[in-house]
Amino acid sequence: MERRMSVVQVIPLGGVGEIGKNCTAVREGEDIVLIDCGLSFPDEDMMGVDIVIPDFTYLVENADKVRGVFLTHAHEDHVGGLPYLLKQIRVPVYCTEFTQALIRQKLEERLTRDRIDIRVFKPGDIIQAGKLSVEPVRVTHSIPENCSMAIRTSHGIVLFTGDFKFDFTPVDGKLANITRFGELGVEGVVALFSDSTNVDRTGWGPSESTVTEGLRAVFTSAPGRVLITTFASNIHRLQQAYDVAAETGRKVAVIGRRMEQNVDICERLGYLKVPKETRIRLDEVQNYPDDKLVIFTTGSQGEPMSALVQMSKGTYGRMQIKRGDTLAYSARPIPGNEGAIWRTINRLFEQGCRVVYDSPTPIHVSGHAYQEELKMMVNLTRPYY
Ligand SMILES: [Zn+2]
Fold this sequence. Notes:
Layout: E1 8-14, E2 23-28, E3 31-35, H1 57-61, E4 66-70, H2 76-79, H3 82-88, E5 93-95, H4 97-110, E6 118-120, E7 127-129, E8 132-139, E9 146-153, E10 156-160, H5 178-187, E11 189-193, H6 211-221, E12 226-229, H7 235-247, E13 251-255, H8 257-269, E14 293-297, H9 307-313, E15 326-329, H10 338-350, E16 354-356, H11 371-381
Parallel strand pairs: 3-4, 4-5, 5-6, 10-11, 12-14, 12-15, 13-14, 15-16
Antiparallel strand pairs: 1-2, 2-3, 7-8, 8-9, 9-10
Helix pairs in contact: 5-11, 6-7, 9-10
Bound molecules: zinc ion (ZN).
The site of zinc ion has 4 residues, from loops.
């Protein structure tokens, strides 16, 4: 009988040629592993649509073969589709402790507990998934505890970088495991699937820690309160804002449900180190002069129900914008959200709030690799494809 070589299939269910809903199945024989399970946000012409999720038909049809979902990191475009998948199939979810901390509550809000099976790994663990195995490798990005995934098949390693940049001065000091990428290259990477978000940007991207300087400039020059908005999961950004607030004698209050949740979880687990006596409750804000205050707020994407958007409309019950406020817009619009964001910023200007969004010392840097970093990944891992 003729012996057939087994085939490794890589099946993208989303995230290729678009930003968002990253979700890729890798199959060899009777085993399937899934890398990420994200959602994306609708374009402005998708009226009445709140979120977009991948088409899970293939996974539902092959549910008995899916050995696990492996999460590279906790961004919504990599994990946001999970509740919808887990409603349809039962499968263990593998991720870091940090990712687990951020997603568990969201899953429990939408699923019964018997459908949630989260297994925590550390970078460097090797997780058996049928005849395949998966090894998470630490890499840097705009959220803590980010991993690339090396899948061992009978043809060699299939490597997914996940979202990444090579940041040599990360805020938490946890460097990308460059040595390991080199070793995987020697072992044999048959195919590399790389983040390409910033493939059009030449050179090296700036380190996340350069943002401290920009925040310092805003915090010291602002005549009154500083409001800062960023992605609620950008813990390293919030850490820097905390540190600069303490350094400039300002207290920090946090508003917006997702921001409060994430800050609380990360403070408890030690991912956010809050300088002594810096955080205050929102109802304590009135006890301090305006130029001694910083407010972390949700709304960086112009989400209609977010604290920032409601404040810009004067409809937020817990706090109002006043003349002399400064908003540090420490984010970038996700494509599709530009209109909502600029309308929010315009309304803030109308109320006498200064908005800093494009300062000479940046208050935002990208979490994605520029051209030279992408070349470095290719050179380290030396993929066949
Ligand atoms: Zn990401």
